[in-house]
Amino acid sequence: MFIEIDFNSDEAIYVQLCNQIIMGIATSQFREGEQLPSVRQLADAIGINMHTVNKAYSILQQEGFVKIDRRRGAIIAIDLNKLAALQEAHDMLSVVLARAMCKGVSRTEIHELIDEIYGEYEA
Amino acid sequence: MFIEIDFNSDEAIYVQLCNQIIMGIATSQFREGEQLPSVRQLADAIGINMHTVNKAYSILQQEGFVKIDRRRGAIIAIDLNKLAALQEAHDMLSVVLARAMCKGVSRTEIHELIDEIYGEYEA
DNA sequence: CCCTCTGTTATACTTGATATAACACAGAAT
DNA sequence: ATTCTGTGTTATATCAAGTATAACAGAGGG
Q1: C30 C1' – B70 CA distance, angstroms?
Q2: Are both A24 and A51 inside the same structural domain?
Q3: Do A86 and B94 touch (CB under 8 A)?
Q4: Distance, angstroms, CA A103 to C1' C9?
Q5: Which residues in A lie closer than 8 A to residue B96 (C-beta atoms)?
Q6: Each residue of B34-73: pLDDT tens digit?
Q7: Are residues B86 and B68 in the same domain?
Q8: How many whole angstroms separate alpha carbon B82 and alpha carbon A104?
Q9: Can you tell me the distance from the alpha carbon of B95 to that of B77, in angstroms, rounded to the nearest whole number?
Q10: Which pLDDT tens digit goes with each residue over A48-103?
């Protein structure tokens, strides 16, 4: 369990949690069917409130990354909706690329970044 | 001036404003040295508060997209810091790509999206 | 039957986003 | 000079969102 929270960040804690868990799934640190730590366990480990973790898990459920069972807790369960995923990726990329373009980052450099990150994830 | 705010979005209004203005710069709708509408003009046009626009402009200044003059208002002035831009792009892409990968989007499909968006911007 | 584990709900507290109002400075018109 | 109108700024208030504390409810193991 390698989750690092930056308390000085302007990003909400539950958002950081969501992102790190999703990245954990992408890197196969968490696998389909695997059980995440209970809200209390994780909250204590990080030093934050149980409710904040609960909110992160709820959002991950809503976005189709986990399923929540009252007895077993949160379990990795990807809901594959590729059309929605492509739409979401397009919208988020539009913002990221606009920022990069304004600052003089070329199309080639972006493609290189993509390959670099995909490399980190597939390894 | 084509700025559309979604009041049902979970994104804060000032964030939507920042993003749309940055996309406006990327599409050459706004050019270096050009003057943005005054905080009151834009606020009235959109139907929001002047202070919300002011916050967006302040953030754009802080991030190096505009300069604010008490007399002339906000003026497009890109502060080219490519190293920081590449770092930022890497961090944001890490999150976007993780989400996409989990949902079964391939590396090739991401590259296609990049080209598609760059095409829209350069046109 | 009790103890402990799970998530859930109710309630407060604190911070951030947005709005209202008054301010201060600069330039144009009179 | 004086007034008017434009700019961003600051102070204050309001409302929503993020986070925390505490008590609850169901499930399973001793």
Answers
A1: 25
A2: yes
A3: no
A4: 48
A5: 89, 92-93, 96
A6: 999 999 999 999 999 999 999 999 999 999 999 999 889 9
A7: no
A8: 7
A9: 28
A10: 999 999 999 999 999 999 999 888 899 999 999 999 999 999 999 999 999 999 99
Position A8 in a domain: no
- Segment A8-36, tens digit of pLDDT: 999 999 999 999 999 999 999 999 999 99
Helix B13-26, helix A82-102: angle, nearest 10 = 70
> Does A26 contact B102 at a Cβ distance shorter than 8 Å?
yes
Give the end-to-end CA distance of chain A in Å, rounded to a whole number: 18
Residues B54 and B31 in one domain: yes
pTM listed for this prediction: 0.93
Q: Can you give the pLDDT at residue B40?
A: 96
If you average pLDDT over every residue of chain B, what do you get?
95
How far is Cα of residue B112 from the mean position of the Cα atoms in its chain? 22
A52 with A26, same domain? yes
pLDDT for the residue A70: 83
Instruction: Give the bridge partners for A68, in sequence order.
Output: A74
Owning domain of residue B54:
13-76
User: Nearest C-alpha of chain A: how many angstroms from B85?
Assistant: 6
Distance CA(B86)–CA(B95), nearest Å, equals 15
User: Which one, of B61, B71, B47, B72, lies nearest residue B18 by Cα?
Assistant: B61
Task: Report yes or no: B91 and A100 within 8 Å, Cβ to Cβ.
Answer: no
> What CA–CA distance (Å, rounded) separates A114 from B114?
9
